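Review this fold:
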Amino acid sequence: MHHLKPLAAKFNISADSKWLLEAFTHRSYAVEHNLTYDNQRLEFLGDSVLEIVLTEHLFKLYPAMTEGDMTKTRSALACEGSLAVLARKLDLGSYLRIGRGEQGAGGIDRDSTLADLFEAFTGALYLESGFEAARLFLLDQVNSNFPDPRRLLVELNPKGKLQEFSQQHWNEIPHYTVFRHSGPQHLPLYEVEVTLRCYTAMGSGRSRKQAEFNAASQLFQFLRNRGVIKDDF
C-alpha cells in the first residue's frame, strides 16, 4: 500500500483529507482494525455523481442516440469491468488499505473491488473539490480510455448488434452453425461459424453460447473494418 500523499497532490486534494482516507479503506481492513468507517458510503455517493456526468456526456456526444441506447451505453461505461480499467490505469489499487485475508485471496486486483474503489474516490473528490472537479476528472478518464463509448455495446452484445444491423439493412438475420465440437465432457470446445450474406466468421468457446458470441464479434469487427458497418452504427 502506497502513501496517499502523491495521489492527493496529483488531484489537488489535502493529504490529510478524511474523505480520501475513507475512500481507500476497504471494509475488510476496517473490520480487522476495528474502524468505524470504510469506503462503502463514498462508493454510493460516487456512483450517483458518475451517473449524472455520464448521462450528460452521452447526451451531448451522441445527439441522435435514443434513450434506450443511451441507457445501455451508460451501463456499459459504468459497469464493473469498465470502472476497473479506469482504476488500474490510475493505479488506485496500490493505495487501498485492505485486510490481510482479502489481500491474500487476490481481492486487491478484483474487478469488483477496483470498481467500488473508483466510485469511492470519485465521491471523495466530489466532497473535497466540488462537482466541477469531479466532472472534469471523470470526463478526462472516459475520453482517454473510451473515446467512442458506443463500441462498448458491441463488446457487451455482439450477437444483438450484428442482428440489429442485418435486419435494418438487409432484412436478414445471421445464421450460426456448430462447425466442430471436441474435447472431454468436462472441458468441451465448440467452434461455431456465423454466416451473413456472403460473409462468414469463426468463433470458439467452452460453450456454444460463448462460441457464437466470439463469432459474432469477429464478423461485426470485420464488417466494420471493411466499411460495410459504419462507425456511427
